[in-house]
Design a protein that fits this description.
210 residues, mainly alpha
Length: 210
């Protein structure tokens, strides 16, 4: 285990490479070679690889006893996989299906053609994605609270100043009792706020056809 943790960045980068190789291999085996059983083997490797990334963060925490940038990067990777990663994989899946059909001269299934949404339908889709982002944000922060606890400064902050203090990137001791997690939380909160504003804009200014 010491060897793995001594070269933890190498193993993390390797795991990310394996992640994308397995994703593409799974789709090619499934659609181009039509080896669905073999593609399932690759899918299992895909899942095990994700669990391995999570274990790297756990083992690193066990060794150091504190949260670090390394662990936060892994959290970001996992959060991406749970939020935007799903929709991105669906897009990649549809792209590979169309590519295979085009290369083989087969008719392209209209059901896998990307559907362009406008107006309320597009806004609703954006709100669903934002809701998923928000739920993951809350769950991860609950996990942080359980792992390291809240800081004393959080308890001393008036409710009407809560979000203003949280948005302040200079507050390294707010809201959790860990500086690294707080920096990560501040950045993610800003990203969530930007995501909210962009999503709201599609309701106020509906997307129209060109």
């Amino acid at each position: 285990m010491d060897f793995i943790l001594d070269y933890k960045w190498f193993f993390l980068i390797t795991a990310e490479v394996v992640f994308w190789v397995c994703a593409i291999a799974f789709l090619l085996l499934r659609y181009w070679f039509q080896l669905k059983k073999l593609s399932l083997v690759v899918f299992v490797i895909f899942i095990v690889n994700d669990l391995w990334i999570a274990l790297l963060a756990y083992f690193d925490y066990q060794r150091t006893g504190e949260f670090s940038i390394y662990q936060i990067i892994i959290v970001i990777i996992i959060v991406y996989a749970m939020t935007f990663g799903k929709s991105d994989f669906k897009k990649l899946d549809a792209f590979i299906k169309r590519w295979v059909a085009k290369r083989r001269g087969e008719p392209i299934d209209e059901s896998i053609q990307p559907v362009k949404l406008y107006g309320k339908a597009y806004a609703l889709q954006e709100w669903k994605q934002f809701a998923g982002h928000f739920v993951v944000f809350v769950l991860v922060h609950i996990g942080f609270a359980i792992a390291v606890g809240f800081s004393d400064s959080l308890q001393q902050t008036p409710l009407n100043e809560l979000f203003g203090t949280w948005f302040d990137g200079e507050k390294s001791n707010f809201p959790f009792d860990n500086e690294g997690i707080n920096k990560f939380s501040h950045v993610w909160l800003l990203i969530l706020a930007v995501d909210f504003v962009i999503t709201l804009s599609y309701t106020l200014f509906p997307k129209k056809k060109s």
